[in-house]
């Protein structure tokens, strides 16, 4: 019975915390950041490049971490 009470209290606490955080988020600022930083990929066939520019000239041994 104690476990159920602890689980219920944990869920209530998480729910209340999420409501408080949601009310405190500046939605206009989030919209501005998303539209300026995150951009759509122009060509769907174009591969996504996850490496840094410095990694282009790195050796194979350096890329795998040795």
UniProtKB/TrEMBL annotation:
The keyword Signal applies. Keywords: Signal. Residues 1-18 form the signal peptide. It comes from the Bacteria. This is Uncharacterized protein.
């Amino acid at each position: 019975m104690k476990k159920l009470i602890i689980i219920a209290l944990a869920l209530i606490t998480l729910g209340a915390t999420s409501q408080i955080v949601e009310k405190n988020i500046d939605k206009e600022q989030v919209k501005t950041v998303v539209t300026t930083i995150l951009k759509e990929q122009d060509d769907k066939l174009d591969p996504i490049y996850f490496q840094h520019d410095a990694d282009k000239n790195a050796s194979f041994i350096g890329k795998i971490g040795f």
